[in-house]
Amino acid sequence: MVVGSVDWCATITVDEKFEYKPGSFNFGGSFKFHEQSRGWVVAVDADTGAERWKYETAGPQVSGITPTAGGVIFAGDMKGNFFVLDSANGKPVYTAQTGGAVAGGVITYLREGKQYVALTSGNVSRITFGVVGSPTLVIYGLGGTGTAPAAVESVSSHLPDPALGAVTFSKVCAACHGGKAEGGIGPGLTGLAQRMDFAATVQWIENPSAKMPKLTPSPLNVQAVQDVAAYVQGL
After folding, report:
1. What CATH architecture is 162-233?
2. For 2-141, which CATH class?
3. Domain map of the chain by residue range?
4. Would you say the pTM of this structure is higher than 0.70?
5. Beta strands 92-97; 106-111: pairing state
6. Which H or E element spans position 230?
């Protein structure tokens, strides 16, 4: 039996004077994830529970784990890594960076006698960490020689639009920073303009600390970053 796990700690501090506000996060104090996160893929004996081997992943491991009759295991992690492990000892036989968090199913199938592996890459949720990326379906073929097309450089297409930024914020940022930017797992952003100007806000979004997932160039392109910066500057 093979299982995946998340190895990621957080510090929860109780606030005796905490007052719940409807529509906001309710931790009874503060909640802060540690900067470092990782995961494990572990093989255990189904009868005795004894550990046979374990493989450390660069990011938390929440994707599906797919064993095969061919003696390999397909899986991925939240740092965007897709990997193939030898089911006998857990050693990697192939790894690839998908560009987005691997947090969904991983399947393998045959078509016209050729084996393929398909997985979902890209995730924006309340527990994002590492690589985020736009939602994408990634397919590998056994014996394939093709390469992915080069990424098109993103450019700004119009002036920063706070209204569009509000829409993007609700889809990408609100899960951590709160629906009204009041704060949650991530810090509150109200009054941000008093602490940094527009240019600094753009820079902060593009180059976040280790506690925040990197959202550029995907799922946020240059224009989306500027729109979000314009929105939070007005809070």
Report:
1. Orthogonal Bundle (1.10)
2. mainly beta
3. 2-141, 162-233
4. no
5. unpaired
6. helix 222-233
Q: Which of 214, 147, 155, 162 is nearest to 193 (CA)?
A: 162
Please give the torsion angle defined by the CA atoms of residues 188, 189, 193 and 199, in that order, rounded to the nearest 10 degrees: 130
Mean pLDDT by 10 residues, the chain (235 residues): 91 87 76 83 94 94 93 92 96 90 91 92 62 78 69 62 90 84 85 92 88 79 92 93
CA 177 to chain centroid: 16
Chain length of the chain: 235
- Please give the Cα distance from 67 to 118 (Å, whole number): 14
Euclidean distance between CA atoms 196 and 23, whole angstroms: 27
CA distances from 115 to 108, 109, 140, 154 (A): 7, 6, 9, 35
219: its two tokens: 């799922």
- Name the nearest CA neighbour of 107 among 149, 153, 66, 61: 66
The sign of the torsion formed by the CA atoms of 15, 19, 20, 24 equals negative
The pLDDT of residue 173 is 87
8 Å CB contact between 156 and 197: no
Distance CA 42, CA 2 (A): 6
Please give the full DSSP string across 133-187, using - where no structure is assigned. ---EEEEEETT----PPPPPPP---SS--HHHHHHHIIIIIHHHH-TTS--SSSP
Residue 63 near residue 106 (C-beta atoms within 8 A): yes
- Side-by-side strand order, sheet with 38-44: 2-7, 38-44, 51-57
